[in-house]
Amino acid sequence: MVVFVEASVMDDTHLDQFSNFTNIKDKLMTFRDGKDDLTDKIDFIICMGGDGTLLYASLLFQQSVPPVMAFHLGSLGFLTPFRFDNFQDQFNNVLEGNAALTLRSRLRCIIIKNGELEESNKNVKEKEESTNLLVLNEVVVDRGPSPYLSNVDLFLDGKHITNVQGDGSIVSTPTGSTAYAVAAGASMIHPSVPAIMVTPICPHSLSFRPIVVPAGVELKVSVSPDSRNTAWVSFDGRNRQELLHGDSLRVTTSIYPVPSICAQDQISDWFDSLAECLHWNVRKRQKHLDELTDLTHSSSNNDTLDSLEQAELLEKDGS
User: Which of 80, 98, 132, 182 could form an S-S bond across to 72 if both were Cys, CB 3.0 to 4.6 Å?
Assistant: First the structure.
């Protein structure tokens, strides 16, 4: 088994005090983000951290992704179902093949700069590849530092759907529906559902609700010609850049999902995360009718005793 770690791990002086690490240090291989291609080198990924660690692992693989076993060491842990306290037993169980997978779809995002479509198809293709990014959660188009409303046009398979005016819009996967999108008022979609969600951020219209479209469509977001300002786009919270007038963002479902290993199964993991991380449907328990009847009887008995005590006092006063 050949183990790859980030180069920064080897540079961490705190690890030198552990003799176990010193013994295996020379056997480890290293990689650097953005410089080394891991596509054909890695067969299995272990994430130790929070949801951001899993997003980072997804970013490292811009094509096919090996199965990911994510351990919960962060603050939220919605996407990291495994506990670290008995990691060896869980790890061995997975290696023996006793595990289910959730295929988490990703979005393929391409930025088309103003005027690129007028060039040759070859040049356009080369430039598309240089701006091609796969995201696991969402791509966000917002107004950036501008005080004006974001004003962008939304197209679905080439047809103009609507104009988005507000703080921005979120185009998310089902996995991302429980992230930024749900905080902006969207519904939560199970990661196995093939869909894309579009959620406005503080829209300038009370009737503008989030929508869910089929996974096979192409979404296009472009800065409106009459917009007072440009727009800014970010991909899973990274690679933030400006969209100028005439620029557009193309979003489709990628053919390269993230195979996430389940701690139990697809349904149990998701609903456990909803309950533990988001406290979904948490409320005080409704009292049973028997409990309400007992309270009523207790209250009636108290009232009767009070009435008797008052009658006794009146008799004493009269005598």
Answer: 80
